[in-house]
Amino acid sequence: MRTTTLEIRGLQTNVQEWGEEGAPKLFMLHGWMDCGATFSYMMPSIAACFHVIAPDLRGFGDTDHAPGGYWFPDYFADLEVLLNHYQPHGKLDLLGHSMGGNIAMLYAGIRPDRVGRLLSLEALGLPPSEPADSVQKYRKWLTEILSDGESRVYPNANLLKHSIYKGNPQLPDHIIEDLAELWGKPVGDDGAMMLKGDHRHRYTNPVRYSFEDTQQIWREASAKTGLVMGLNSMMYQRFHAAGRVEHVKEIFNIQPQHYYEIENCGHMLHLEHPQRTAEIILDFYS
Fold first, then answer.
1. Per-residue model confidence as pLDDT tens digits over 61-70
2. Which partner from 38, 47, 90, 220 sits 20 to 30 angstroms from 130, CA to CA?
3. CB 3 within 8 A of CB 15
4. Homologous superfamily of 2-128+209-285 in CATH?
5. Per-domain residue ranges for the chain?
6. pLDDT tens by residue, 107-164
7. Residue 102: which residues within 8 A CB-CB, separation 6 or more?
8. Distance, CA of 78 to CA of 8 (rounded, Å)
Protein backbone atom coordinates (compact mmCIF):
# COMPACT_ATOMS: atom_id res chain seq x y z
CA MET A 1 0.00 0.00 0.00
CA ARG A 2 1.13 3.50 -0.77
CA THR A 3 -0.59 6.70 0.26
CA THR A 4 -0.89 10.15 -1.22
CA THR A 5 -2.70 13.33 -0.28
CA LEU A 6 -4.95 15.30 -2.62
CA GLU A 7 -6.75 18.55 -1.94
CA ILE A 8 -10.39 17.83 -2.72
CA ARG A 9 -12.80 20.71 -2.31
CA GLY A 10 -10.71 22.35 0.39
CA LEU A 11 -9.96 19.19 2.39
CA GLN A 12 -6.66 17.34 2.51
CA THR A 13 -7.80 13.89 1.42
CA ASN A 14 -5.85 10.72 2.17
CA VAL A 15 -5.83 8.18 -0.67
CA GLN A 16 -4.56 4.59 -0.53
CA GLU A 17 -3.32 2.88 -3.69
CA TRP A 18 -2.27 -0.64 -4.54
CA GLY A 19 -1.07 -2.28 -7.76
CA GLU A 20 0.66 -1.01 -10.86
CA GLU A 21 -0.38 2.43 -12.10
CA GLY A 22 -0.75 1.17 -15.67
CA ALA A 23 -3.22 -1.56 -14.69
CA PRO A 24 -7.01 -1.13 -15.03
CA LYS A 25 -8.27 1.17 -12.29
CA LEU A 26 -10.72 0.05 -9.60
CA PHE A 27 -12.07 2.68 -7.22
CA MET A 28 -13.15 1.48 -3.76
CA LEU A 29 -15.24 3.42 -1.22
CA HIS A 30 -15.25 2.40 2.45
CA GLY A 31 -18.14 2.35 4.91
CA TRP A 32 -19.20 4.57 7.81
CA MET A 33 -16.48 5.15 10.44
CA ASP A 34 -14.10 2.97 8.40
CA CYS A 35 -11.18 3.99 6.17
CA GLY A 36 -9.73 2.99 2.81
CA ALA A 37 -6.76 1.11 4.30
CA THR A 38 -8.96 -1.73 5.61
CA PHE A 39 -9.37 -2.97 2.03
CA SER A 40 -5.73 -4.08 2.29
CA TYR A 41 -6.66 -7.57 3.50
CA MET A 42 -8.02 -8.34 0.01
CA MET A 43 -5.12 -6.86 -1.91
CA PRO A 44 -2.69 -9.76 -2.39
CA SER A 45 -4.86 -11.04 -5.25
CA ILE A 46 -6.70 -7.90 -6.37
CA ALA A 47 -3.60 -5.70 -6.69
CA ALA A 48 -2.09 -8.22 -9.09
CA CYS A 49 -4.84 -7.31 -11.57
CA PHE A 50 -5.87 -3.72 -10.80
CA HIS A 51 -4.60 -0.32 -9.83
CA VAL A 52 -6.81 0.11 -6.77
CA ILE A 53 -7.61 3.61 -5.50
CA ALA A 54 -9.36 3.92 -2.13
CA PRO A 55 -9.79 7.35 -0.51
CA ASP A 56 -10.58 8.10 3.09
CA LEU A 57 -13.90 9.91 2.75
CA ARG A 58 -14.26 13.36 4.29
CA GLY A 59 -14.08 13.24 8.07
CA PHE A 60 -12.87 9.63 8.16
CA GLY A 61 -9.44 8.03 8.46
CA ASP A 62 -6.65 10.51 7.76
CA THR A 63 -8.73 12.89 5.65
CA ASP A 64 -9.53 16.33 7.09
CA HIS A 65 -12.68 16.87 9.08
CA ALA A 66 -15.21 19.15 7.39
CA PRO A 67 -15.61 22.34 9.47
CA GLY A 68 -19.20 22.86 8.34
CA GLY A 69 -20.39 19.35 9.17
CA TYR A 70 -21.52 16.61 6.80
CA TRP A 71 -24.19 16.42 4.10
CA PHE A 72 -24.50 13.36 1.92
CA PRO A 73 -24.36 15.14 -1.48
CA ASP A 74 -20.83 16.30 -0.64
CA TYR A 75 -19.65 12.71 -1.08
CA PHE A 76 -20.77 12.76 -4.72
CA ALA A 77 -18.87 15.98 -5.42
CA ASP A 78 -15.76 14.68 -3.64
CA LEU A 79 -15.96 11.43 -5.59
CA GLU A 80 -16.26 13.24 -8.90
CA VAL A 81 -13.13 15.30 -8.20
CA LEU A 82 -11.25 12.12 -7.26
CA LEU A 83 -12.40 10.23 -10.37
CA ASN A 84 -11.56 13.14 -12.66
CA HIS A 85 -8.08 13.29 -11.16
CA TYR A 86 -7.28 9.61 -11.76
CA GLN A 87 -9.47 8.80 -14.77
CA PRO A 88 -10.95 11.91 -16.36
CA HIS A 89 -12.48 10.19 -19.39
CA GLY A 90 -14.57 7.14 -20.14
CA LYS A 91 -16.42 4.66 -18.01
CA LEU A 92 -14.79 3.30 -14.86
CA ASP A 93 -15.09 0.51 -12.31
CA LEU A 94 -16.51 1.42 -8.91
CA LEU A 95 -17.00 -0.58 -5.71
CA GLY A 96 -18.40 0.45 -2.35
CA HIS A 97 -19.01 -1.14 1.03
CA SER A 98 -21.97 -0.11 3.20
CA MET A 99 -22.11 3.71 3.17
CA GLY A 100 -19.55 3.70 0.38
CA GLY A 101 -21.80 1.32 -1.54
CA ASN A 102 -24.73 3.69 -1.16
CA ILE A 103 -22.58 6.54 -2.43
CA ALA A 104 -21.47 4.43 -5.41
CA MET A 105 -25.01 3.27 -6.26
CA LEU A 106 -26.38 6.80 -6.26
CA TYR A 107 -23.41 8.19 -8.18
CA ALA A 108 -23.96 5.54 -10.86
CA GLY A 109 -27.44 6.96 -11.40
CA ILE A 110 -26.34 10.59 -11.23
CA ARG A 111 -23.47 10.02 -13.68
CA PRO A 112 -24.45 6.96 -15.76
CA ASP A 113 -21.97 7.98 -18.44
CA ARG A 114 -19.08 7.51 -15.99
CA VAL A 115 -19.74 4.20 -14.25
CA GLY A 116 -19.34 1.10 -16.39
CA ARG A 117 -19.26 -1.57 -13.68
CA LEU A 118 -20.53 -1.27 -10.11
CA LEU A 119 -20.24 -3.72 -7.22
CA SER A 120 -22.12 -3.04 -3.99
CA LEU A 121 -20.98 -4.77 -0.79
CA GLU A 122 -23.73 -4.81 1.83
CA ALA A 123 -25.42 -1.64 0.53
CA LEU A 124 -29.13 -1.43 -0.28
CA GLY A 125 -30.10 2.11 0.60
CA LEU A 126 -31.52 3.01 4.01
CA PRO A 127 -34.77 2.07 5.74
CA PRO A 128 -37.53 4.52 4.75
CA SER A 129 -38.34 7.29 7.23
CA GLU A 130 -41.80 8.56 8.11
CA PRO A 131 -43.18 12.12 8.10
CA ALA A 132 -44.00 11.67 11.78
CA ASP A 133 -40.24 11.48 12.45
CA SER A 134 -39.51 14.92 11.01
CA VAL A 135 -39.99 17.17 14.02
CA GLN A 136 -38.07 14.95 16.41
CA LYS A 137 -35.20 14.60 13.94
CA TYR A 138 -34.82 18.38 13.69
CA ARG A 139 -35.08 18.83 17.46
CA LYS A 140 -32.43 16.20 18.12
CA TRP A 141 -30.10 17.58 15.42
CA LEU A 142 -30.46 21.11 16.77
CA THR A 143 -29.51 19.98 20.26
CA GLU A 144 -26.52 17.99 18.98
CA ILE A 145 -25.16 20.61 16.60
CA LEU A 146 -25.32 23.42 19.17
CA SER A 147 -23.88 21.41 22.05
CA ASP A 148 -21.13 20.07 19.75
CA GLY A 149 -19.67 17.59 22.22
CA GLU A 150 -16.18 16.19 21.79
CA SER A 151 -15.04 12.77 20.65
CA ARG A 152 -14.76 10.09 23.33
CA VAL A 153 -11.24 9.69 24.68
CA TYR A 154 -10.09 6.18 25.65
CA PRO A 155 -7.54 6.24 28.50
CA ASN A 156 -5.41 3.63 26.74
CA ALA A 157 -5.17 1.58 23.57
CA ASN A 158 -6.57 -1.56 25.20
CA LEU A 159 -9.85 0.18 25.98
CA LEU A 160 -10.11 1.36 22.38
CA LYS A 161 -9.48 -2.21 21.20
CA HIS A 162 -12.15 -3.48 23.57
CA SER A 163 -14.63 -0.96 22.17
CA ILE A 164 -13.84 -2.06 18.60
CA TYR A 165 -14.19 -5.70 19.64
CA LYS A 166 -17.63 -5.08 21.20
CA GLY A 167 -18.85 -3.73 17.88
CA ASN A 168 -17.10 -6.45 15.85
CA PRO A 169 -16.83 -9.59 18.02
CA GLN A 170 -16.56 -11.81 14.95
CA LEU A 171 -13.18 -10.38 13.94
CA PRO A 172 -9.91 -12.11 14.93
CA ASP A 173 -7.59 -10.46 17.43
CA HIS A 174 -4.94 -9.45 14.88
CA ILE A 175 -7.50 -7.45 12.87
CA ILE A 176 -8.80 -5.75 16.03
CA GLU A 177 -5.17 -4.76 16.72
CA ASP A 178 -4.84 -3.34 13.20
CA LEU A 179 -8.15 -1.49 13.39
CA ALA A 180 -7.10 0.22 16.61
CA GLU A 181 -4.17 1.71 14.68
CA LEU A 182 -6.14 2.47 11.50
CA TRP A 183 -9.19 3.93 13.25
CA GLY A 184 -7.50 5.47 16.30
CA LYS A 185 -4.94 8.16 17.07
CA PRO A 186 -3.04 9.16 20.21
CA VAL A 187 -4.23 12.05 22.36
CA GLY A 188 -1.49 13.71 24.38
CA ASP A 189 1.47 11.85 25.85
CA ASP A 190 -0.20 9.56 28.40
CA GLY A 191 -1.27 6.80 26.02
CA ALA A 192 -4.87 7.98 25.60
CA MET A 193 -6.56 7.31 22.25
CA MET A 194 -9.52 8.59 20.27
CA LEU A 195 -11.13 7.62 16.98
CA LYS A 196 -9.97 9.46 13.88
CA GLY A 197 -13.49 9.65 12.47
CA ASP A 198 -15.16 12.98 13.22
CA HIS A 199 -17.66 12.54 16.07
CA ARG A 200 -20.10 14.79 14.19
CA HIS A 201 -20.78 11.92 11.79
CA ARG A 202 -22.88 10.54 14.65
CA TYR A 203 -25.22 13.51 14.74
CA THR A 204 -28.80 12.94 13.67
CA ASN A 205 -29.51 13.80 10.04
CA PRO A 206 -32.42 16.27 10.21
CA VAL A 207 -33.39 15.62 6.58
CA ARG A 208 -35.65 12.63 6.12
CA TYR A 209 -34.38 9.86 3.84
CA SER A 210 -36.55 9.46 0.76
CA PHE A 211 -36.43 5.94 -0.63
CA GLU A 212 -38.62 7.13 -3.49
CA ASP A 213 -35.93 9.62 -4.56
CA THR A 214 -33.23 6.98 -4.17
CA GLN A 215 -35.06 4.53 -6.42
CA GLN A 216 -35.55 7.17 -9.09
CA ILE A 217 -31.82 7.89 -9.14
CA TRP A 218 -30.96 4.18 -9.18
CA ARG A 219 -33.14 3.66 -12.25
CA GLU A 220 -30.91 6.05 -14.20
CA ALA A 221 -27.85 3.81 -13.73
CA SER A 222 -26.67 1.86 -16.76
CA ALA A 223 -23.66 0.09 -15.22
CA LYS A 224 -23.26 -3.65 -15.07
CA THR A 225 -24.07 -4.12 -11.38
CA GLY A 226 -23.35 -6.78 -8.78
CA LEU A 227 -24.40 -7.19 -5.16
CA VAL A 228 -22.64 -9.04 -2.33
CA MET A 229 -24.36 -9.82 0.99
CA GLY A 230 -23.23 -11.55 4.17
CA LEU A 231 -25.91 -13.99 5.28
CA ASN A 232 -25.29 -13.32 8.98
CA SER A 233 -25.47 -9.54 8.70
CA MET A 234 -28.37 -7.70 10.30
CA MET A 235 -28.67 -5.63 7.13
CA TYR A 236 -29.17 -8.69 4.95
CA GLN A 237 -31.63 -10.29 7.34
CA ARG A 238 -33.73 -7.14 7.77
CA PHE A 239 -33.78 -6.12 4.12
CA HIS A 240 -34.23 -9.67 2.84
CA ALA A 241 -37.32 -10.06 5.03
CA ALA A 242 -38.66 -6.75 3.70
CA GLY A 243 -38.06 -7.69 0.05
CA ARG A 244 -35.43 -4.99 -0.46
CA VAL A 245 -32.78 -7.41 -1.77
CA GLU A 246 -35.00 -8.59 -4.63
CA HIS A 247 -36.17 -5.05 -5.29
CA VAL A 248 -32.61 -3.76 -5.69
CA LYS A 249 -31.73 -6.67 -7.94
CA GLU A 250 -34.69 -5.78 -10.15
CA ILE A 251 -33.95 -2.04 -10.36
CA PHE A 252 -30.29 -2.57 -11.26
CA ASN A 253 -31.03 -5.60 -13.46
CA ILE A 254 -28.55 -7.66 -11.46
CA GLN A 255 -28.05 -10.98 -13.19
CA PRO A 256 -28.12 -14.20 -11.12
CA GLN A 257 -24.40 -14.77 -11.64
CA HIS A 258 -23.68 -11.28 -10.28
CA TYR A 259 -25.52 -11.72 -6.99
CA TYR A 260 -23.27 -13.21 -4.32
CA GLU A 261 -23.92 -14.43 -0.78
CA ILE A 262 -21.21 -15.24 1.74
CA GLU A 263 -22.11 -17.77 4.41
CA ASN A 264 -21.09 -17.32 8.05
CA CYS A 265 -20.35 -13.67 7.35
CA GLY A 266 -21.66 -10.45 8.82
CA HIS A 267 -21.53 -6.88 7.59
CA MET A 268 -17.74 -6.41 7.42
CA LEU A 269 -17.15 -8.71 4.44
CA HIS A 270 -13.69 -7.42 3.61
CA LEU A 271 -12.47 -8.05 7.15
CA GLU A 272 -14.35 -11.24 8.03
CA HIS A 273 -13.78 -13.12 4.76
CA PRO A 274 -11.23 -11.10 2.77
CA GLN A 275 -10.16 -13.96 0.50
CA ARG A 276 -13.70 -14.93 -0.47
CA THR A 277 -14.64 -11.28 -1.00
CA ALA A 278 -11.55 -10.81 -3.19
CA GLU A 279 -12.52 -13.86 -5.25
CA ILE A 280 -15.98 -12.37 -5.82
CA ILE A 281 -14.50 -9.01 -6.83
CA LEU A 282 -12.18 -10.66 -9.36
CA ASP A 283 -15.02 -12.78 -10.70
CA PHE A 284 -17.31 -9.80 -11.17
CA TYR A 285 -14.74 -7.51 -12.81
CA SER A 286 -13.16 -10.22 -14.97
1. 999 999 988 9
2. 220
3. yes
4. Alpha/Beta hydrolase fold, catalytic domain (3.40.50.1820)
5. 2-128+209-285, 132-202
6. 999 999 999 999 999 999 999 889 999 999 999 999 999 997 788 999 999 999 999 9
7. 96, 123, 125, 126
8. 6
